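Q: My labmate handed me this sequence with no annotations at all. I'd like to see what the chain might look like in three dimensions before we decide whether it's worth expressing. Could you predict it?
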Amino acid sequence: MSKIAFVFPGQGSQKVGMASEFIGNGAAFSSFADEADSRLGIELSKLMQDGPQEELTLTYHAQPALLTAGAAIDAALKEAGIRPDYAAGHSLGEYSALVSAGVLSFGDAAETVHRRGLYMNEAVPAGEGSMAAILGLGAEELQRVTEDVTGEGHPVQPANLNCPGQIVISGSKRGVELACEAAKAAGAKRAIPLDVSGPFHSTLMKPAAQKLQAQLDSVGFGQAIFPVVANVTAEPVRDPEQTKQLLVEQLYSPVRWEESVRKMLDLGVTLFIECGPGGVLSGLIRKIDRSATVLRVEDMETLNKAVETAKGWS
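A: Here is what I predict for the chain of 314 residues:
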């Protein structure tokens, strides 16, 4: 029997006005925004609705904002009778997937990702780390490139294994620069620096991971209602303790997104519903497997379309 997966985008997808039809004043799921405001002690909902974009994009704002949008869309889909067989999220999006699966409460997750953003921001001073997208070079060849550069004293590593021909690298500013040059010399079509505030999913994030461990130990983890495919292993997980450990490792380990999507396909998923703004994951999934059906939900129009399609899915 064909199965459905909910997938949740990560940092970079945030935009002013996202999920406003779900969490704006008087909207059906405004309680998520209210709870986030209360738990974080900031006017996150106002920032989500009114901006400015520069403030919303700050790591410690973008993370709880995307979580809030994802949780509200997830709740709207479930209220309409659409429930997933699996869930996954890209980096930060994994927390939204865990809320969907009942592993974390929304309030605990909102506080945790806010702190996660602060820890990530503190781990490497601005300007000392960076990331870049490498297009058109295989994973094994890029691994060799980054190992060579790291061996020269400039740490850099694959960070997001997104889809065939697209891998993001992360590390020290100089390490990323040298790896981009070496990747192009090795045959990469393009090397595109990313506008990010730090070297996410690299070993330089280990100080943040230590702080995150303490935060995760302070919140409750439940047994997953349905499996969540973890970024670190690309395998479905339901066990609470394993989930917690993988979230710590996720901060300094590659996001194995292509493998995660292929795992869900192997498990019988034929319909992916992206819950959140931007459509980045929809594009990646289509590049991984053109036969997969992918829908985006970011407003009421797309929600209604997804519900109509999913109700006829079998």
